[in-house]
Design a protein that fits this description.
The chain is mostly beta strands. It has one domain: TolB, C-terminal domain (Neuraminidase), CATH 2.120.10. Helices cover about 5% and strands about 45% of the residues. The strands form 5 sheets. It has a 5-stranded mixed beta sheet with strand order 2-3-4-5-9, with no helix packed on it. It is globular and about 45 Å long. The two termini are about 35 Å apart.
Length: about 300
Amino acid sequence: MHKPNYEGVHGALIPQLKTLLVLAVSLQVGGVVAVEPLGQVRFLNCDELTESSGVCFSQQRILWTHNDSGDQPRLFAFDPRGKLLAIVEVSGAKAVDWEDICYFQRDGTSYLAVGDVGDNQSTRDQVQIYLVKEPELDAQVTEPRRLQLPVEAVYSINYPSGPVNCEALAYDPVSQEFLLATKELLRSRFFRIDARRIQGNYKVTADLGQSVLFPLVTAADIRHDGQQLILCGYSSAWGLNRDGNRWDNSNGFVVELPRRRLGESICYHSSGNRLYLTSEFSPTPLFDVPVIASAAISP
């Protein structure tokens, strides 16, 4: 969503300051890696894309993104230079508050998972993840295509302790789970959902996993080999390497991000050593940021 939710924080300044101090220390010791903040900057050329709020990069070398709340249920496909390839209507989906998108493969088929998970006031009893098959697109087209794709699966999700605000969705290829990272003032809680079902409608309760001290998470992605997670904030990103079934917060690293107006999206390039970012601005900038991979990249 457009503004951080600060409700319920008054009267708790001392605990917050203590937690922020811990966070500040963690960002200076224990494996923090310096990263160059700026790479190439391009623009995504589409007047209908006004508030890019999620982005992913597929094996077809296609960038997929969508608008924030208030738009139709549709996706925009671009090549890495910013050329619009297609606008795809997702039939059978609703767009209450689309916040993030991720890409994964299953049995040779490519899928896009769209997170209709935004809940700035924490009032939604259920949020949704919509699965669609990625269409094959021709990067040489002279005019963008307009397509319609059916929803393959719908996950209707509730949280064990009640509604939470979440803007970050990622797919974990190691555990075959979706990861949802909450957007909170001082920390982010990770919820997990079994993602092995790719057809049908499912009602699920998300499993609470670990928490990390990183504030106001607006997006997330997991590298294609499943060995690294990136969390996006408004001014920086926090990288975590896999440690078994957990993410090692003690040896995380900071990625300083370029200045963006309401930057709420991030994803890995297929190489694993670069990040793509957009912002809720029109024309939509596309930032290409190098990241030092402190965990070895698997093929």
